[in-house]
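Hi F.,

I've been meaning to write this up properly since the lab meeting, where we talked about keeping a consistent format for the predictions we share between groups. The idea is simple: the sequence comes first, exactly as it goes in, then the structure tokens exactly as they come out, then a line or two of notes. No screenshots and no reformatting. I'm using this chain as the first example so we have something concrete to point to.
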Amino acid sequence: VKSNVFQEEKLLVHRLHSTASETSDEEEIVSWNLTSSNENREYGEIPLKAYWTYFSECGLFWLSIYIVSTVSWQVLRIMTDFWLTKWSEDKHANEQVFYYLFVYALFSFGSICLSMVSNCTGQTAGARARYQLHNSMLENLLKCPMKFYETTPLGQIINRFSNDLSIIDKKIATSIQRLIQFFLMCVSAFIVNSIVTPWFLVFAAPICVVYYVIQKFYTCSLRELQRLDSIARAPILSHYSETDTGLETIRAFKQQETFTNVFFHKLDCHTNVFYIINAGNRWLGIALDYLGAVVVFIAILVSLVSSTVFPHLVTPPLIGLAINYTLLLPIYLNWIVKFLSDIEMYMGAVERISDCSKLPIEDYNSEAEVPKNWPLRADIRLEKASVQYDSSQQPVFTNLNLTIPHGQKIGICGQTGSGKSSLAMCLFRMAPLQEGQVFIGDRNISTIPLRRLRSCLSAIPQDVIMFSGTIRDNLDLRKEFTDEEIWHCLELAQLKKTVSEYAGELYGQVKEGGENFSAGERQLFCLARGILHNTTCLVMDEATSSLDADTEKTLINAARSAFEKKTVIIVAHRLQSLLDCERIIVLESGKIVEDGSPCQLLAKPGGVLASMLRATQSTK
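Output, unedited:
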């Protein structure tokens, strides 16, 4: 497997070094990238909807002020230059110095004010757009189903929040402002040259066509390279994240060199794309510089001929003004081509973020009326329930019928892939129910608003998440409960002594991920959270699989005591943790093969539970 990975990465490096543009070469590069990053690559021009999305998020009010102020600013600049020309032509200017100086100062002051308004409103519009795009993507990703996170590489998500948002934060707004400014300057140069020497337009038209062809050629190449750059970056982020997560395992098996080599190969692939992008930028600069020299030569030649043929109409000050604008024209055109290409390249980030903002999400918009006291009793009933994560895969379970009375302590066990966790997840509507119905308290959960449903259930997963902040924030983020109520819940969860001895007690700081607490303590904090919110059902999904026997016993006893009159569902591989349950269900290939009390099931010599328990004991 490792050799195949290296071969594929060497192929990408070779293809990126090659200057050939054959379709088969590109397809092999893309194929490797899609395999390694699982990210779909777009082709062709950036759709207009990406531009519409960005500008609509800027806000019509700020955009209108920006456009009006920018155009007015450029008009004042032209008027200022013409005023200086008129001043220099006036033979009696020495007698009217104050008049000319006052008007010039007035124009200059107006230009300064309008430039400030233009820059401020442009940046404000850009800030509004990036704020809206970020929040829209974040809100949508938080509502995506679990399947999205199980099938999407972490590096791809990180890429959206790091590289793509960085482009929108730092580059798009500034590039658009500069593009509009240089475009208006270019238009001004054409207008001034056309007024002074109308013949300039005859030569300017074909030159503009050449500029357009160069711009399109450069943009098409750069656009695809930028997409490859984005795709080639995602595997680096994914590999780094995966390596950081499994660092202990990598060191234990002494695979540091292997993972380092894989990282450098991925980095080389991205570096080669980055190199070609910069080489393309240099090519554009050289091509436009040569073309700009032609523009300057033609403009100067036409101006000199016009002044010779029409000396009374084309005066030396006007020629000076025209040549001054012409000398800057190649620079303006160069920057226009550069910024047009850059903006189209940057709009790819808007397109990708917009796509993230439109991913399918869970149904949070249900407005069904539910009694405030629902559910009084956590009677759970599954009727012919079927769960299937993907149409290309076999269903996890089909036609499953199960009834769990309120207050029952039930254990669910089975081999890996038997459907234990999926059964628990369908109670939270986190597993897609293809057929059948699930009832809690005589209400079909598909008719219950998702937030309301999940707020009535508590879950203790295998890997508990604790956020950086205070202990109190981790238990009561919305500040709905008093300190006395929180201390009472901590006492029920066997955590009162731990927290009272902790620096700051309830207001003690929790490190990211809860690193300053043991795995068992994090599980107990999760239990305390459920107790505090007075949920009617507790689901423990492999919650004790990474705990030692004593901590496991503490957690289960605390859960039973705190949820004494409520429903508790324990999903576990470790059978010893289920023997104290009132009832045990054994799943096999998505079907219930045994159902009864521990004593009843263990009394069957050939029973599945008894066989699993004997196998576990013999292994030990």
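Notes:
The longest helix spans residues 256-309.
The domain at 380-619 is CATH 3.40.50.300 (Rossmann fold).

If this format works for you, I'll send the rest the same way.

G.
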